[in-house]
Amino acid sequence: MKRSLHVLCPECGSRVTCRTSEQMTRTVREGRMLCDNDDCGCAFVVHIIAVRLVVRGLAPNPELHLPVGRWREPANDDSPPRPANDDRIAADLVTG
């Protein structure tokens, strides 16, 4: 199954079409976008930037210096909250 990148117009929220694109550096591609909504007509520029590797390639480039990480880094609040009726909290206050 082929997946594609869907960019939305910053003005009206409609889908946009990439009219042209150019590789700026090894990690940055610049695209010129045009809104598909004829009533809007917005045109804008996007940068697609490689920020980290998820899996190193089989032919790694020694000149490329990107960190290796996960698909999605956990947010600060991703850990589940402690339940209000947790007995450990009460025990910590008593022995504290």
Topology (elements, then pairings):
Blueprint lengths: L15 E8 L4 E8 L7 E7 L37 H9 L1
Antiparallel strand pairs: 1-2, 2-3
Description:
The chain is mainly β. Strand 2 and strand 3 form a beta hairpin. The termini are far apart.
The fraction of residues in strands falls at 15-25%
Which geometry do the CA atoms define? flat
> How many strand units?
3
Radius of gyration: 23 Å
Strand order of the largest sheet: 1-2-3
Q: Uncertain segments of ≥5 residues (pLDDT<50)?
A: none
The profile of the biggest β sheet is: 3 strands, antiparallel
Overall SS class: mainly beta
**Topology as H/E string?**
EEEH
- Overall average residue pLDDT: 84
Number of helices: 1
The amount of helix comes to: under 10%
* First and last CA, distance: 57 Å
List keywords for this structure.
single chain, 96 residues, mainly beta, three-stranded antiparallel β-sheet, 9% helix, flat
Summarize the structure.
With 96 residues, the protein is mainly β. Helices cover 9% and strands 24% of the residues. A 3-stranded antiparallel beta sheet has the order 1-2-3, with no helix packed on it.
